[in-house]
Amino acid sequence: MLKKLEICSNNYKTWKEIALKSKDPRMIKKAAEKAFFWIELQTSFLVLNELEKNLITESERKKLLNMKLNLMKKLLSYAKKVAEEL
After folding, report:
1. pLDDT at residue 11 in the model
2. CA-CA distances (angstroms) from residue 10 to 1, 5, 46?
3. Which residues are CB-contacts of 5 (< 8 A; sequence separation ≥ 6)?
4. Of 8, 22, 28, 70, which has the fewest CB atoms closer than 10 Å, so is most exposed?
5. Among 39, 38, 50, 49, which Cα is nearest to 79's?
């Protein structure tokens, strides 16, 4: 879990710095979108981790797994987008 949070945090900081230092409005927008993606992902991981600690029923566990799956899909979509940009 800590590694996921570290990756998210590092990417957020990187893209935030790029957005703040850039003079090109398109680059600012692009970098800000990426920074927001990473901070949103980090927050989602934190929330899901806390939920997982307090789950009781099998139904709740299944819902949590679906939420985690959706996060992974979002991350995969982001990776595909980055690969296309290269």
Report:
1. 94
2. 14, 9, 15
3. 42, 45, 46
4. 70
5. 38
- Which residues contact residue 66 at a Cβ distance below 8 angstroms, ignoring those fewer than 6 apart? none
Residue 32 has pLDDT above 90, yes or no: yes
How many domains is the chain built from?
1
CA-atom Rg of the chain in angstroms: 15
Contact indicator for 39, 23 with CB cutoff of 8 Å: no
Give the max Cα distance, the chain: 52
Contact 69, 57 (CB under 8 A): no
Residue-wise pLDDT for 34-65, tens only, equals 999 999 999 998 988 888 888 778 888 888 88
Could you tell me the residue range of the domain that residue 40 belongs to? 2-85
What residue type is 80 in one-letter code? Answer: K
